[in-house]
Amino acid sequence: MNELQKKILALKKERDCLILAHYYQPLGVQDIADAVGDSFALAKRAQSASQRGIIMCGVRFMAESAKILNPGKTVWLPAEDAGCPMADTIVPADVLALKKQYPEAAVVCYVNSTAAVKAVSDVCCTSSSAEAVVRSLPNRQILFVPDKNLGAYIAKQLPDKEVILYDGCCPIHDGVSLQQAEAAKRAHPEAKLLVHPECRKEVVALADYVGSTAGILETARKDPAGSFIIGTENGVTDILVRELPLSHIYALKPDFICPDMKKTTLEDVLACFEGRRTPIELPQAELDGARKSLERMIAVQ
Ligand code: 13P
Ligand code: SF4
Predict the structure, then answer these.
(1) How far is the CA of 59 from the centre of ligand 2 (A)?
(2) CA 50-52-58 angle, 5° bins
(3) Angle between helices 60-69 and 284-300 (to 10 degrees)
(4) 284: burial class by Cβ within 10 Å (0-12, 13-18, 19+)?
(5) Residue 181 and residue 186: Cα distance in Å, rounded?
(6) d(Cα 273, Cα 301) in Å, to the nearest integer?
(7) Which tens digit of pLDDT belongs to each residue from 58-81?
């Protein structure tokens, strides 16, 4: 622990704050968190937080979800300009137009979306809960927004559903080509390929395991002497390299990096305690509408 990390831990206690961090965050930030998790685990942890404040080390939709699920708390996003480009591919008017076109469909909204989009959707999902959420719905027709890759993966798992896809994606995961995945497998033929469902379907088709960041970590941890190619952002690779010295962990590609997730610094976290960051605020209609969709997701698990 360096001096800044120790200072943050002392302030956290003194100010009664919970620090949460996503697995893609820099390791030094993960190290000062009370809990590190995937989007689903972080949302649940924020919902049950009893502290006065929550500092969400991640991107904006994660901090918004914390505020929506636990509105009485003060919630900060340390790197205030950390967004998710996938969330910006859709606005409420797009969802409303699709709803008109497919009136029988249930709208399932990936949590990587704005509060306004969640508010006009029927239910949210994360990569670890998407299959269970879609399965739980009585509707045969599902409008899945905004991630076409996760939507296509779920459609394959649940052939009884008709899944209508929106044309959004994560530029970081969708940026992995089939050729890059094949090259990684050729370079490490003994290694299992573990892939996030935000990747393109041709990359997902090559994988030995497909799942959320938490699922990928759990799969590698079960075999601490195994060989794995990590098909998601390199924060997950960094965790495994540090934690499993006997295993062989390879990044699918060296620049598998989400620049927004890497914006958070310890200095940003300190700034939350020093009044240099503005707590998350959302219009009441967005808070109420989005809460219904998020709570419905959590109730499924
Ligand atoms: P997880 O829910 O799997 O952690 O994914 C979050 C994310 O942003 C993936 O790009
Ligand atoms: Fe958004 Fe992709 Fe970054 Fe995840 S990795 S936060 S989906 S841009």
Answers:
(1) 8
(2) 90
(3) 90
(4) exposed
(5) 9
(6) 34
(7) 999 999 999 999 999 999 999 999
Ramachandran area for residue 201 (φ above 0: left; ψ -120 to 50: alpha; else beta): alpha
pLDDT tens digits along 85-126: 999 999 999 999 999 999 999 999 999 999 999 999 999 999
d(C-alpha 101, C-alpha 97), whole Å: 6
* Gap between the Cα atoms of 246 and 225, Å rounded: 5
16: left (phi over 0), alpha (psi -120 to 50) or beta: left
Q: How far is CA 101 from the centre of its chain?
A: 29
* Structure token pair of residue 100: 């008109």
The model's pTM is 0.97
Ligand 1 site, residue 38, Cβ cutoff 6 A: yes
Cβ(172) to ligand 2 under 6 A?
Answer: yes
CB 22 within 8 A of CB 261: yes
Q: How far apart (Å, rounded) are the C-alpha atoms in residues 197 and 147?
A: 10
Query: Cβ(213) to ligand 1 under 6 A?
Result: yes
**Token pair belonging to 271:** 């700034």
Verify whether ligand 1 is closer than 6 Å to residue 170 (CB atom).
yes
